[in-house]
Amino acid sequence: MDNRVLTDPVWGPRASPSRLVGPKRFQPVPIPLRALPPIDVVIVSHDHYDHLDFATIRELVKLDVPIVTSLGVGAHLEAWGVQPERIVELDWWQSYTLAEHRTNRLLRGPPSISPAVACTIATLRSGRHDRTLAAAFRIFSGDTGLTTEYAAIREATGSI
What is the rounded CA–CA span in Å between residue 46 and residue 33? Predict the structure, then answer.
């Protein structure tokens, strides 16, 4: 069985805390949230509005899956109703495996198919990042500018 990973989910009409201002979606969402197949893990790379959407997270709260994110972003998730035990915050170079949450009926399938998620450096900067970390993830490139850190990421996590 394959693992299903949902990355930086944004189903809202705008990448903004407002329904009236901010960048508007160019295309409709390809599938309604309620029509998604079972998800094993959600990854949120950082807290920009085009990666972390309040309305989407409020819907995902209904799923019993872990949410892996970078340092500091868990406070947003917890404030929006995600149970603390489902939030996995990683610093750069830390890793997580899905097997870590296979108890408490959170995930299905045997641990032998549990891939690792490695949190790596991203060079994204924003005023919203005063207290949170921007990160890329080994199974997902995240949102990062061109950086010499790609060599360090390859050395730490293997060839991508």
Answer: 21
